[in-house]
Amino acid sequence: MNNQITIPQAIKKLFDIEVSKESPYIKDKANSFVRNKLIKVVTEQKVQRKSVYLKDSQQLDVLYNALLLNAFYPDPKHVQQIFNNEQYRIECAETIRSLFGQRNNLAGQTLISNNVSALIEALKSQLDLFCTRLPNPFHQLPQIALGKNTGLLNCLLLQASALEPIDNVLVSITNGDWEKAQHLAITLSDDVSGALQLKKMINDKLEEAQEFDDLLNFFSLR
Fold it and tell me: How many CB atoms are located within 10 Å of the residue 116 CB?
């Protein structure tokens, strides 16, 4: 990159957020994507301290998409998996679709309705998240209001006064607890909208994990 840009400068450029004043947490989340190597940086040793810059202009796209997805999934590992695992990305798109519905407001956040559908369709497509930006459904990144370790999906569900059974299943899925999700899904009636699809998705995920474990065990015994 000809003009070196730091992560706070990039966040200002992308979202018009001054992280030092408005949300240091967003800078922390961006740095978590550096640590798990989703975002690539270069480090220069200055006289008194090190300076960290985005490696190239493509990292602006990665940072943009990572922070948008982080609004839903606060765990950096889940965001990284959305970038790298097509099946998981489709599952996340379906989860977001199920919870967004026709909402114009989510957990106190006003949404840009046309971009909500566009975001979901983009996640279900072959879009390369490393070089193409997702549609932004937010007027302002929700992380500013939600704070640390809280994603919109969990916030929406957990703030409900009484969760419906299918919502409990979705909470388990967003937390990555597939075995609990399967246990809860057993109680769902197949007549409930989306129940059959959820059950199949959960069972497929657990079968895939079991097949991988069996393969590892096979090689360990050789």
Answer: 21
Cα–Cα dist 2/4, whole Å: 6
DSSP class of residue 37 equals T
Distance CA 94, CA 104 (A): 18
Find out whether 133 and 107 touch, Cβ atoms under 8 Å. no
Which of the residues in the chain have pLDDT under 50? 1, 159-163
Main-chain dihedrals φ then ψ at residue 142, nearest 5 degrees: -65, -20
Task: Give the DSSP H/E element, type plus range, for residue 182.
Answer: helix 178-185
Q: Based on the number of CB atoms within 10 Å of its own CB, is 100 exposed (0-12), middle (13-18) or buried (19 or more)?
A: buried
In sequence order, the 6+-apart residues with CB closer than 8 A to the CB of 166 are 188, 192, 194, 195, 198
The whole-angstrom separation of Cα 36 and Cα 26 is 16
CA-CA distance, 188 to 192, in Å (whole number)? Answer: 7
Q: Using CA atoms, how far apart are residues 89 and 101, in angstroms rounded to an integer? A: 18
Report field, pTM of the whole predicted structure over 0.70: no
Q: What is the pLDDT of residues 63-86, one digit of tens each?
A: 999 999 998 888 899 999 999 999
Show the tokens assigned to 97.
């679709």
Inter-residue contact 150 to 74 (CB < 8 Å): yes
Instruction: Tell me the β-bridge partners of 107.
Output: none
